[in-house]
Amino acid sequence: MERIASFCIDHNQLEPGVYLSRKDADPATGTVISTFDLRMTAPNREPVMDTAAVHALEHLGATFLRNHPQWASSVVYFGPMGCRTGFYLVVFGSHSPQDIAPLVTELFEFAQTFEGEIPGATPWECGNYHDSDLNQAQWWAKRYLEQTLSCLDEAHTTYPALLD
Fold it and tell me: In the chain, which residues have pLDDT < 50?
């Protein structure tokens, strides 16, 4: 089998950031789809996010994005990476990390200041509604805003060298 593109990135050199993971035309429609790697921790060097924080951020992020006045109709998917170091954001259209950074910043500002019940975190809306922690989610949102999104530069929007 062919190795997928995201496994060709040296994760030992990867830093938190906003990376364009891939940009492809959908084979069925020809529509361009951009996939972003919203990396919140340095893989293999920093602790990963707890599943309860990831779950809360997933619900907050998906709700925010699917209700965004400009981006809602462009959002294909928002969800966690299995390694718990960040999230994937998939959108219709040809976009760069610089195009998407303001939206990502808005999303994490929303998560950082969210008050109330986490959207979709009830037994009839979610298959694991107990595993959610708003306080941890807000801590991670604040960290990502302060340490990454507030000072996003080319080094944190361009993948490091590919593996052989």
Answer: none
CA distances in angstroms from 164 to 5, 10, 50, 159, listed in the order given: 12, 10, 32, 14
What is the distance between the alpha carbons of residues 134 and 148, in angstroms, rounded to a whole number? 20
Structure tokens at 61: 């992020």
- Measuring CA to CA, which residue among 106, 87, 101 is closest to residue 37? 87
Task: Tell me the C-alpha distance between 155 and 153, whole Å.
Answer: 5
Query: Quick check: 67 and 52 in contact, CB under 8 A?
Result: no
Q: Say whether pTM exceeds 0.90.
A: yes
Token readout for 68 is: 């965004």
Distance of CA 9 to the CA centre of its chain: 17
Residue with tokens 């950074």: 101
Cα 129 to chain centroid distance, Å, stands at 20
